[in-house]
């Protein structure tokens, strides 16, 4: 009898349930797997998008099978044993500790690690090695949302759930191309929107007329970076019309008066002018906010990836506070998480300023609680936050790093100002890179490559955007000598003398210890275990110990703050009062365009998997530059012509795609093509590393660029054969 496994899709934060079963009639001799949606998964109800459906096809392509090492970056790698690789790593760690101190050690992880991986890494770095220099690619992704939730509500944690998609009267989508990036959330919303025929409003705020915007009742095609002006403008109208919830404001919030002083400066005509929209559309948006029974806002990178990302997210939350739109079905601010387990990473303390159980590095009580749980002396955890992602690159540049450890992310493509990033990586005296695939771009910058077991080859849990936790069991053998990430971290811990701290035999034991650290916290998961998740299927948190016997209906569709008491000192949510600062790098006569970057439906980030799957590769075979027809006319350019796009930091060469769907003066390049997949098409060669002062998240969504048409004899070889790419496709 063929055994099927229930698991979670390892791509986006929607977190669809998958059912995987062996293909008994594979077209080749290779082991093959059939993947279909798990109808019993509460988040996705059997639906999947093209990425989830094709995931199994990449499992055996170009896997990194053995540890490899080299002394210098221009040497070839040589195969080594695990023992040799781990000995070298531990020697380097000890040397860094002795000669430079703990803060010379950095680890850069990822929202694609499982919770057990994340947790073990926190214990190793923050507890045993005494440095908070663990950061993750979530810094480039969700950190503005994290900062906004903490500042507005007193704790991280998206308050809403997917059932809200089908209970709202107005969905306000800002800075999110949900149709392409969170397709199954979008399917649920769109189905409901169609069914309700005009009774439910769908409003989209995006400088591009994305697939998401095309379905909207109202598309506010704002100028990039004008979100705060727009949101303050909506608030201005709400206040003027008295479409506010004065009782909620009085009883449950603080800071409203200061906010009123700010929003009075945002009259409709001014706002419409700054944002580049009509007064009528602005007023209609405010009317929807003011008169809809339940308003749900969804947001992602168009808000977070900004030099004022935290202020943007908090200003959005203000609208919910002002109208009392939170804590009940169909209402609330809902950040759509990017990666499959960025939520679990936040729970496990996987950013440089946090600790497991939604605790903060800066809080002495929190440090003491974690030290005690880890059996470490008081004072083991350093009192100051560690280096955030971009600061790690700067520390490398300044040669302050003795050992750089990168796991489950591809920074040589995905970090802003990537030429500077690559130069910084080249200065690293010792880089460990732990990935499932080879080649990837970042492997070029590593001294040690460690082969990671990936999804389906290790057991662990992931938490999706709506706080639903799913167990992802191993269902296939690990290729070569690949090991689970948490096993590698634990082995290094033991070799450094922390046998007791890393005595875990199984991922279930790691998880058991982790959930004990969530007791009494907003993200209480003490009622969860691998056994329970295996027996009962996915369960949403909060799930305290005493809720282990609940019925199915209590396991899903939970919301935070239904009692309207927030985890701040006095139980009130905080208004924030921000004026817009605008883009960190504004267009000027030399660099007259605003470049924005983002995603396409079929590709996942740096293509380590989707580039190796025929179907997804064929959906988007080449990178391109989107340009408005009026701008194209200025250069006498047509779709298919080649251009060079330059910023103050670098350049790319791409074919132009002329489209009405982008704002005049704005350009768009997808983020998916690193130097392995195309020549001179890395959009991060252009981007700006200026960060939000509060979340330290870089402004990946906007930089100033110029456009230069390329003569026919200067065309790059993007479409021609590329030896490494050809190898990577085999
Ligand atoms: N297909 C696919 N899906 C994915 C991923 C993937 O790689 N591929 N990655 C996952 C991850 S990790 C993430 S973080 C999410 C990201 O999901 P999204 O945030 O939805 O995706 P992006 O395309 O990065 O950006 C969203 C939109 O922000 C808009 N934008 C740019 N500047 C501004 C601005 O100033 N204001 C506003 N309001 N909007 C602006 C862009 O035009 C873009 O349409 O997707 C997840 N899902
Ligand atoms: N210009 C621009 N840049 C961006 C963005 C943007 O919108 N615009 N978005 C940013 C955002 S939101 C994100 S999330 C990042 C994403 O950027 P990255 O994290 O760099 O992208 P991925 O391609 O997802 O890299 C994940 C890596 O993990 C490996 N992997 C998969 N599973 C496992 C595992 O279990 N263990 C280990 N060890 N490795 C594994 C994969 O092979 C792959 O190499 O990009 C950021 N960069
Ligand atoms: S929507 Fe996201 S989680 Fe669901 S199948 Fe697609 S990529 Fe996977
Ligand atoms: Mo992300």
What's the architecture of the largest domain, going by CATH?
A: 3-Layer(aba) Sandwich
Radius of gyration: 25 Å
The portion of residues assigned to helices is 25-40%
C-alpha end-to-end distance: 32 Å
Overall structural domain count: 4
Number of strands: 28
What can be said about the biggest beta sheet? 7 strands, mixed
Can you count the helices? 25
Compute the average pLDDT. 96
Bound molecules: ligand MGD, iron/sulfur cluster, molybdenum atom
CATH topology of the largest domain: Rossmann fold
Low-confidence stretches: none
CATH class categorisation of the largest domain? Alpha Beta
SSE inventory with pairings:
Layout: E1 5-8, E2 17-22, E3 33-37, H1 50-54, E4 68-69, E5 78-79, H2 82-99, E6 105-109, H3 115-129, E7 134-136, H4 143-153, E8 170-174, H5 178-181, H6 183-195, E9 201-205, H7 211-214, E10 218-220, H8 227-240, H9 246-252, E11 253-254, H10 256-263, H11 268-275, H12 279-291, E12 295-299, H13 301-304, H14 309-323, E13 332-335, H15 342-347, E14 354-355, E15 359-360, H16 364-373, H17 389-397, E16 403-407, H18 411-414, H19 418-426, E17 431-435, E18 448-451, E19 460-463, E20 468-472, H20 485-495, H21 507-516, H22 530-536, E21 539-540, E22 573-574, E23 593-598, H23 614-619, E24 625-627, H24 629-634, E25 642-646, E26 651-658, E27 666-670, E28 703-709, H25 723-729
Parallel strand pairs: 6-7, 6-16, 8-9, 8-12, 9-10, 11-22, 12-13, 16-17, 17-18, 23-27, 24-26
Antiparallel strand pairs: 1-2, 2-3, 4-5, 4-18, 14-15, 19-20, 20-21, 23-28, 25-26, 25-28
Helix pairs in contact: 3-20, 3-21, 4-14, 8-11, 8-12, 8-14, 17-19
Bound molecules: ligand MGD (2 copies), iron/sulfur cluster and molybdenum atom (MO).
């Amino acid at each position: 009898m063929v055994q099927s496994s229930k698991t979670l899709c390892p791509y986006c934060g929607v977190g669809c349930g998958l059912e995987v079963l062996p293909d008994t009639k594979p077209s080749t001799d290779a082991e093959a797997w059939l993947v279909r949606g798990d109808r019993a998964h509460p988040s996705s109800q059997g639906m999947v998008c093209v990425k989830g459906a094709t995931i199994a096809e990449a499992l055996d392509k170009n896997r990194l099978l053995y540890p490899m090492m080299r002394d210098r970056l221009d040497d070839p790698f040589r195969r080594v044993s695990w023992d040799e690789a781990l000995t070298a790593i531990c020697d380097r760690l000890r040397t860094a500790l002795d000669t430079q101190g703990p803060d010379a050690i950095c680890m850069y992880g990822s929202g694609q690690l499982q919770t057990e991986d994340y947790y073990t890494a926190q214990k190793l770095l923050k507890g045993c090695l005494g440095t908070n220099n663990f950061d993750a690619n979530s810094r480039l992704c969700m950190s503005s949302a994290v900062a906004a939730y903490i500042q507005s509500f007193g704790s991280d944690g998206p308050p809403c759930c997917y059932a809200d998609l089908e209970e709202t009267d107005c969905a306000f989508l800002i800075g999110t191309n949900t149709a392409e990036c969170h397709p199954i959330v979008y399917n649920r919303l769109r189905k409901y929107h169609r069914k309700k025929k005009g009774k439910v409003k769908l409003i989209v705020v995006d400088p591009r007329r994305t697939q998401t915007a095309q379905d909207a009742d109202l598309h506010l095609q704002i100028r990039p970076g004008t979100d705060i002006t727009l949101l303050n403008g909506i608030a201005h109208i709400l206040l003027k019309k008295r479409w506010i919830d004065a009782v909620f404001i009085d009883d449950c919030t603080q800071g409203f008066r200061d906010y009123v002083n700010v929003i009075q400066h945002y009259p409709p005509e001014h706002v419409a002018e700054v944002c580049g929209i009509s007064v009528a559309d602005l007023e209609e948006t405010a009317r929807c906010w003011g008169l809809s029974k339940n308003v749900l806002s969804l947001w992602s990178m168009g808000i977070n990836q900004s030099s004022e990302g935290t202020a943007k997210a908090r200003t959005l939350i203000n609208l919910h506070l002002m109208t009392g739109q939170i804590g009940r079905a169909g209402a609330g601010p809902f950040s759509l998480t990017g990666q499959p387990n960025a939520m679990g990473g936040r729970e496990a303390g996987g950013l440089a300023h946090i600790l497991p159980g939604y605790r903060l590095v800066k809080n002495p009580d929190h440090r003491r609680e974690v030290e005690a749980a880890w059996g470490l002396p008081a004072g083991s955890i350093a009192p100051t936050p560690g280096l955030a992602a971009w600061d790690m690159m700067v520390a490398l540049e300044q040669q302050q790093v003795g050992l750089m450890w990168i796991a489950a992310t591809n920074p040589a493509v995905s970090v802003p100002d990537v030429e500077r990033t690559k130069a910084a990586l080249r200065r690293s005296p010792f880089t460990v890179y732990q990935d499932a695939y080879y080649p990837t771009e970042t492997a070029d910058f590593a001294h040690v490559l460690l082969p990671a077991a990936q999804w389906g080859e290790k057991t662990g849990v992931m938490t999706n955007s709506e706080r639903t936790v799913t167990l992802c069991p191993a269902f296939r053998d690990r290729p070569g000598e690949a090991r689970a990430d948490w096993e590698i971290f634990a082995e290094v811990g033991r070799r450094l003398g922390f046998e007791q701290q890393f005595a875990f035999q199984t991922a279930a034991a790691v998880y058991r210890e982790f959930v004990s650290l969530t007791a009494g916290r907003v993200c209480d998961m003490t009622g969860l275990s691998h056994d329970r998740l295996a027996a009962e299927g996915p369960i949403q948190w909060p799930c305290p110990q005493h809720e282990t016997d609940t019925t199915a209906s209590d396991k899903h569709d939970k919301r935070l703050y239904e009692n309207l008491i927030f985890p701040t000192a006095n139980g009130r949510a905080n208004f924030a009062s921000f004026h817009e600062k605008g883009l960190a790098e504004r267009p000027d006569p030399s660099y007259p365009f605003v470049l924005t970057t983002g995603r396409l439906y079929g590709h996942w980030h740096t293509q380590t998997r989707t580039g190796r799957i025929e179907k997804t590769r064929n959906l988007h075979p080449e990178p391109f530059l989107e340009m408005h027809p009026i701008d194209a006319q200025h250069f006498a350019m047509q779709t298919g012509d080649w251009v060079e796009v330059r910023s103050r930091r670098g350049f790319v060469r791409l074919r132009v795609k002329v489209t009405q769907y982008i704002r005049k003066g704005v350009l768009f390049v997808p983020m998916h093509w690193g130097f392995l997949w195309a020549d001179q098409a890395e959009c991060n060669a252009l981007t700006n590393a200026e960060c939000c002062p509060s979340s330290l998240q870089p402004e990946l969504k906007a930089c100033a660029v110029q456009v230069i048409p390329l003569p026919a004899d200067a065309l790059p070889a993007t479409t021609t054969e590329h030896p490494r790419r050809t190898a990577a496709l085999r």
